[in-house]
From TrEMBL:
Pfam families recorded: Iso_dh (PF00180)
SUPFAM superfamilies assigned: Isocitrate/Isopropylmalate dehydrogenase-like
Family annotation (Gene3D superfamilies): Isopropylmalate Dehydrogenase
Protein name: Tartrate dehydrogenase/decarboxylase / D-malate dehydrogenase
Any one Gene Ontology molecular-function term assigned to this protein's record: magnesium ion binding
Record's keyword annotation contains GTP-binding: no
Amino acid sequence: MTRIAQIAGDGIGPEVMAVARRVLDAAGVTDLQWTELDWSCERYAREGSMMPADGMDLLAEHEAVLLGAVGWPGVPDHISLWGLLIPIRRAFDQYVNLRPMRTFDGVPTPVRADLAEGVDIVVVRENTEGEYSTLGGRHGSGAAETALQTAIFTRAGIERIAHVAARHAAERGGTLTVATKSNGIIHSMPFWDEVVREVAQEYPIEVHFELIDALAAHLVMRPADYDVVLGSNLFGDILSDLVGGVCGSIGIAPSANIDPTRTHPSMFEPVHGSAPDIAGQGLANPVGMVWSAAMMLKHLGKEKETNRIMAAITTTLADPATRTPDVGGLADTETVADALVDHLRSTA
Ligand code: ATP
Ligand code: MG
């Protein structure tokens, strides 16, 4: 049995998690042993912390963490982020943030349909260093008050994420696009370019470096030209939301926080949050959660089940009767869940 820690969380988190569990069952995944944890803002309100003091030790006994969403109005973001998500990403050295996104037949996109057709991109984001560091501070006062924020790029840190991105590119279309800003950021970004270029040479891939500003424009204007996009912590963060937006809805976007060394559990979660505005109404799109669960299966080596779930997602999204309103459909969460399950059962 493979041990999985489930954190359904807040708001629509438990609603979409229930769908993911049904889908995994229907896909015939029977060898997972679940630990269901009630870690959430609700727990914080009740007990004063998002998770118990020995929470990280408990998670460490698992192969993977499947997370719904945490966050709730009235609980400051730094509590849900620093009380749960960030400690997990850091303590488990989940240095790869994978954000695949693609367009689906029938799902409306904000970019012209002919430009959106066939878009299939994976953003690989460095998840542990770079611009999001705690190094820096505020000095002086009045007009002289100054804030310094130091980005940290290490050779080891760049090398390991570059290997992951290059490997993905080699397995997919053979092209890697690297976001940079080495014309304006004169220390860290030239170093980033240099180390990524060195690593990429070890792979049978084409590598393009693009300035982040131009890349942002190109991803909107001709998204179908891109395949694997590598970004530093900040650039990857921004670009993955941009690509998600281009493809239609936050409700279908998945993500994975991975420790490729498998020393620690990796964590899989939809890109969306707890969506308090639609929680409890049966309106949540479960696809981002289900796709995240499929990514977890792939990480666990269950390629066949992963592909079957992806086929069920594609079929379900193609029909307005089996997709939720955020992607131009008429269905509630339950109807989408039933459609996914039916598809998996009928193709078993
Ligand atoms: P967080 O701060 O946790 O990242 P957020 O508050 O920025 O989250 P979400 O909770 O993701 O954002 O919600 C943003 C908007 O997208 C809301 O209007 C919400 O209803 C909508 N939304 C998010 N997830 C889904 C979903 N799965 N299905 C349908 N709509 C969704
Ligand atoms: Mg929020």
